Amino acid sequence: MKIYLANITSLEVGYLQGKYGQMGWLLSPQSFPHRLRHFMPMAFDNDAYSAYQNKTEWNEAVWLKMLEQMVERQVKPEWVLVPDVVGDKRRTLANFFLYREAISRRGWPIGFAVQDGMVPQDVPLCDVIFVGGTTNWKWKSLPMWTQAFPRIHVGRVNSLEKLQICRRLGVESVDGTHWFRFKDAAQYCDEFIEFFENKESPQMELISIDEESI
Protein backbone atom coordinates (compact mmCIF):
# COMPACT_ATOMS: atom_id res chain seq x y z
CA MET A 1 0.00 0.00 0.00
CA LYS A 2 1.37 3.40 -1.00
CA ILE A 3 1.47 6.38 1.36
CA TYR A 4 1.22 9.81 -0.24
CA LEU A 5 2.48 12.86 1.62
CA ALA A 6 2.66 16.42 0.31
CA ASN A 7 5.83 17.62 -1.43
CA ILE A 8 8.06 16.64 1.49
CA THR A 9 11.71 16.46 0.41
CA SER A 10 13.30 15.28 3.64
CA LEU A 11 16.10 12.72 3.60
CA GLU A 12 13.81 10.41 5.55
CA VAL A 13 11.14 10.37 2.84
CA GLY A 14 13.78 9.76 0.16
CA TYR A 15 15.15 6.90 2.25
CA LEU A 16 11.69 5.35 2.69
CA GLN A 17 10.96 5.53 -1.03
CA GLY A 18 14.35 4.09 -1.92
CA LYS A 19 14.02 1.18 0.50
CA TYR A 20 10.33 0.31 0.28
CA GLY A 21 9.09 1.96 -2.93
CA GLN A 22 5.75 2.76 -1.29
CA MET A 23 5.93 6.52 -0.79
CA GLY A 24 4.59 9.27 -3.04
CA TRP A 25 3.52 12.88 -3.19
CA LEU A 26 -0.10 14.01 -3.18
CA LEU A 27 0.06 17.48 -4.71
CA SER A 28 -2.53 20.18 -5.23
CA PRO A 29 -2.67 23.78 -6.46
CA GLN A 30 -1.45 24.93 -3.05
CA SER A 31 1.44 22.49 -2.81
CA PHE A 32 2.56 22.07 -6.43
CA PRO A 33 6.35 22.42 -6.06
CA HIS A 34 8.75 24.63 -7.94
CA ARG A 35 11.07 21.65 -8.21
CA LEU A 36 9.84 18.14 -8.92
CA ARG A 37 11.40 14.83 -7.94
CA HIS A 38 10.57 12.50 -10.78
CA PHE A 39 11.59 9.43 -8.77
CA MET A 40 8.61 10.16 -6.50
CA PRO A 41 5.20 8.90 -7.71
CA MET A 42 2.78 11.83 -7.85
CA ALA A 43 -1.01 12.03 -7.61
CA PHE A 44 -2.98 15.26 -7.71
CA ASP A 45 -5.71 16.54 -5.41
CA ASN A 46 -7.77 19.68 -5.99
CA ASP A 47 -7.85 21.63 -2.67
CA ALA A 48 -11.59 21.13 -2.27
CA TYR A 49 -11.10 19.86 1.28
CA SER A 50 -9.02 22.92 2.20
CA ALA A 51 -11.80 25.16 0.91
CA TYR A 52 -14.29 23.14 2.96
CA GLN A 53 -12.18 23.46 6.11
CA ASN A 54 -11.60 27.17 5.63
CA LYS A 55 -15.21 27.86 4.57
CA THR A 56 -14.04 29.53 1.37
CA GLU A 57 -14.97 29.14 -2.29
CA TRP A 58 -13.03 26.55 -4.26
CA ASN A 59 -10.79 28.23 -6.88
CA GLU A 60 -11.41 26.76 -10.32
CA ALA A 61 -8.87 28.99 -12.09
CA VAL A 62 -6.01 27.90 -9.81
CA TRP A 63 -6.84 24.23 -10.38
CA LEU A 64 -6.92 24.64 -14.17
CA LYS A 65 -3.61 26.52 -14.03
CA MET A 66 -2.09 23.56 -12.16
CA LEU A 67 -3.16 21.23 -14.97
CA GLU A 68 -1.45 23.47 -17.51
CA GLN A 69 1.72 23.52 -15.42
CA MET A 70 1.64 19.73 -15.26
CA VAL A 71 1.54 19.58 -19.06
CA GLU A 72 4.37 22.10 -19.38
CA ARG A 73 6.55 20.15 -16.97
CA GLN A 74 5.65 16.79 -18.51
CA VAL A 75 4.29 15.36 -15.29
CA LYS A 76 2.96 11.80 -15.49
CA PRO A 77 0.51 11.55 -12.59
CA GLU A 78 -0.67 8.34 -11.01
CA TRP A 79 -4.13 9.95 -11.12
CA VAL A 80 -5.80 13.34 -10.92
CA LEU A 81 -8.82 13.92 -8.67
CA VAL A 82 -11.82 15.58 -10.29
CA PRO A 83 -12.94 18.58 -8.20
CA ASP A 84 -15.43 17.44 -5.57
CA VAL A 85 -17.62 19.09 -2.94
CA VAL A 86 -17.05 17.59 0.51
CA GLY A 87 -20.09 15.78 1.84
CA ASP A 88 -22.28 16.79 -1.13
CA LYS A 89 -23.30 13.93 -3.42
CA ARG A 90 -25.27 15.94 -5.97
CA ARG A 91 -22.72 18.71 -6.52
CA THR A 92 -19.81 16.27 -6.65
CA LEU A 93 -21.51 14.30 -9.44
CA ALA A 94 -22.26 17.53 -11.30
CA ASN A 95 -18.61 18.58 -11.00
CA PHE A 96 -17.45 15.24 -12.37
CA PHE A 97 -19.25 15.69 -15.66
CA LEU A 98 -18.15 19.34 -15.82
CA TYR A 99 -14.43 18.77 -15.21
CA ARG A 100 -13.55 15.21 -16.20
CA GLU A 101 -12.59 16.15 -19.77
CA ALA A 102 -9.91 18.52 -18.50
CA ILE A 103 -8.19 15.41 -17.15
CA SER A 104 -9.16 12.72 -19.65
CA ARG A 105 -8.15 14.67 -22.77
CA ARG A 106 -4.62 14.80 -21.43
CA GLY A 107 -4.56 11.04 -21.03
CA TRP A 108 -4.32 11.07 -17.25
CA PRO A 109 -6.09 8.55 -14.97
CA ILE A 110 -9.21 10.00 -13.36
CA GLY A 111 -9.93 9.93 -9.63
CA PHE A 112 -13.46 10.38 -8.30
CA ALA A 113 -14.11 11.34 -4.67
CA VAL A 114 -17.13 9.52 -3.23
CA GLN A 115 -19.19 11.53 -0.75
CA ASP A 116 -21.73 11.00 2.01
CA GLY A 117 -24.76 9.04 0.87
CA MET A 118 -23.17 7.56 -2.24
CA VAL A 119 -23.23 3.85 -3.07
CA PRO A 120 -21.26 2.03 -5.78
CA GLN A 121 -24.10 2.41 -8.28
CA ASP A 122 -23.66 6.21 -8.13
CA VAL A 123 -20.04 6.13 -9.30
CA PRO A 124 -19.37 7.28 -12.90
CA LEU A 125 -16.66 5.72 -15.06
CA CYS A 126 -13.27 6.52 -13.54
CA ASP A 127 -9.94 4.88 -12.71
CA VAL A 128 -9.54 5.39 -8.95
CA ILE A 129 -12.09 5.77 -6.16
CA PHE A 130 -10.99 8.38 -3.62
CA VAL A 131 -12.90 7.75 -0.39
CA GLY A 132 -13.55 11.23 0.92
CA GLY A 133 -16.64 12.69 2.52
CA THR A 134 -17.03 13.45 6.21
CA THR A 135 -14.90 11.48 8.64
CA ASN A 136 -17.51 9.20 10.24
CA TRP A 137 -19.10 8.32 6.91
CA LYS A 138 -15.74 7.62 5.28
CA TRP A 139 -14.65 4.98 7.78
CA LYS A 140 -18.06 3.33 8.08
CA SER A 141 -18.45 3.05 4.30
CA LEU A 142 -14.86 2.01 3.48
CA PRO A 143 -15.50 -1.78 3.43
CA MET A 144 -18.29 -1.23 0.89
CA TRP A 145 -15.92 0.59 -1.47
CA THR A 146 -13.08 -1.92 -1.24
CA GLN A 147 -15.51 -4.74 -2.00
CA ALA A 148 -16.94 -2.94 -5.04
CA PHE A 149 -13.84 -1.46 -6.74
CA PRO A 150 -10.26 -2.66 -7.31
CA ARG A 151 -8.47 0.69 -6.92
CA ILE A 152 -9.21 2.60 -3.72
CA HIS A 153 -7.46 5.64 -2.24
CA VAL A 154 -8.38 6.88 1.24
CA GLY A 155 -7.87 10.48 2.30
CA ARG A 156 -6.81 11.72 5.73
CA VAL A 157 -5.23 8.56 7.13
CA ASN A 158 -3.18 9.84 10.03
CA SER A 159 -2.39 6.98 12.40
CA LEU A 160 -0.78 3.54 12.35
CA GLU A 161 -4.11 2.00 13.34
CA LYS A 162 -5.82 3.53 10.30
CA LEU A 163 -2.96 2.48 8.03
CA GLN A 164 -3.45 -1.09 9.23
CA ILE A 165 -7.21 -0.93 8.63
CA CYS A 166 -6.65 0.26 5.08
CA ARG A 167 -4.03 -2.38 4.31
CA ARG A 168 -6.22 -5.19 5.64
CA LEU A 169 -9.12 -3.99 3.50
CA GLY A 170 -6.97 -4.01 0.37
CA VAL A 171 -6.70 -0.25 -0.13
CA GLU A 172 -4.24 0.75 -2.87
CA SER A 173 -3.07 4.07 -1.40
CA VAL A 174 -3.69 6.64 1.33
CA ASP A 175 -2.68 10.17 2.21
CA GLY A 176 -2.33 12.15 5.41
CA THR A 177 -0.80 15.41 6.60
CA HIS A 178 -0.72 14.71 10.37
CA TRP A 179 2.56 12.82 10.01
CA PHE A 180 4.69 15.80 8.99
CA ARG A 181 2.63 18.61 10.51
CA PHE A 182 2.72 17.32 14.07
CA LYS A 183 5.74 14.99 14.13
CA ASP A 184 9.39 15.43 13.29
CA ALA A 185 10.88 13.53 10.36
CA ALA A 186 12.66 10.95 12.49
CA GLN A 187 9.44 10.04 14.31
CA TYR A 188 7.24 9.55 11.24
CA CYS A 189 10.09 7.74 9.48
CA ASP A 190 10.24 5.22 12.33
CA GLU A 191 6.46 4.77 12.28
CA PHE A 192 6.39 4.14 8.53
CA ILE A 193 9.24 1.63 8.85
CA GLU A 194 7.23 -0.16 11.55
CA PHE A 195 4.24 -0.24 9.21
CA PHE A 196 6.12 -1.39 6.10
CA GLU A 197 7.96 -4.14 7.99
CA ASN A 198 4.92 -5.41 9.90
CA LYS A 199 4.02 -8.53 7.91
CA GLU A 200 0.49 -9.04 9.16
CA SER A 201 -1.60 -11.82 7.68
CA PRO A 202 -4.30 -10.46 5.34
CA GLN A 203 -6.68 -12.92 7.04
CA MET A 204 -6.16 -11.21 10.40
CA GLU A 205 -9.41 -9.95 11.93
CA LEU A 206 -10.07 -6.33 11.05
CA ILE A 207 -9.80 -3.66 13.68
CA SER A 208 -13.33 -2.49 14.48
CA ILE A 209 -14.21 0.70 12.64
CA ASP A 210 -16.43 2.70 14.94
CA GLU A 211 -16.84 6.28 15.99
CA GLU A 212 -14.57 5.89 18.99
CA SER A 213 -11.63 4.86 16.80
CA ILE A 214 -12.01 7.71 14.29
Structure description:
With 214 residues, the protein is an alpha/beta fold. The protein has a single domain (2-213), classed as TIM Barrel (Alpha-Beta Barrel), CATH 3.20.20.105. The chain contains eight helices and eight strands; from the N terminus they run E-H-E-E-H-H-E-H-E-E-H-E-H-E-H-H. The protein has helices spanning 11-20, 48-54, 60-72, 89-104, 135-148, 160-168, 178-182, 185-197; strands at 2-5, 23-27, 42-44, 80-81, 110-114, 128-131, 152-154, 173-175. Helix 1 runs parallel beside helix 8. It is globular. The two termini are 20 Å apart.
Please give a quick description of this structure:
By secondary structure, the protein is α/β, with parallel strands linked by helices.
Low-confidence stretches: 201-208
What about the largest sheet? 8 strands, parallel
Element order: H for helix, E for strand: EHEEHHEHEEHEHEHH
Span of the ends, CA to CA: 20 Å
User: What would you call the structural class?
Assistant: alpha/beta
Strand content: 5-15%
**Over the alpha carbons, how many angstroms does the gyration radius reach?**
17 Å
- CATH top level class name: Alpha Beta
Number of extended strands: 8
What would you say the CATH architecture is?
A: Alpha-Beta Barrel
Mean pLDDT over the residues: 92
Helix content: 40-55%
CATH topology, by name, is TIM Barrel
